[in-house]
């Protein structure tokens, strides 16, 4: 349970540059602030707004489309998680594939097979540059991005595979095409299925 900010004490500034998972458990979320995604890079907390309706809908639909196939592959397709790289570095990907048997607030990056991000205008740089670098350094084998334009009714899925310490493109598909792969488990669907039409 997060402690309220009171009597001039503000955990966001008090612990700047020193955030750890232990402090996060004590002070996050910060009472009085709108709901946010809390991530941390080397003790520096990063707050970003929750996903848009289109991205949230697509995340649920992606989970539905991949749930059974992941289980057959002895993996688990789940939503947003706190993926811990170190005590002072964690991310909260929108979609994850993990090994079975996970529990608790923090999931060790070694247990994560794939992270996925639904890219929004406020997260474009982090989702395309920062987070792939963090995930690659942590040795997470696969990284996925999904970009949706509700206005244009378009969606693009990109899946990368970690090769030699860097992500290399594995599959790309747009709405109207088939996104098909056997890695990290069999998936086959038209990305248009992620839209709320």
Automatic annotation (TrEMBL):
Gene3D superfamilies: tt1808, chain A. GO terms for molecular function: endonuclease activity. Keywords: Endonuclease, Hydrolase, Nuclease. Residues 34-189 form the Putative restriction endonuclease domain. This is Uma2 family endonuclease.
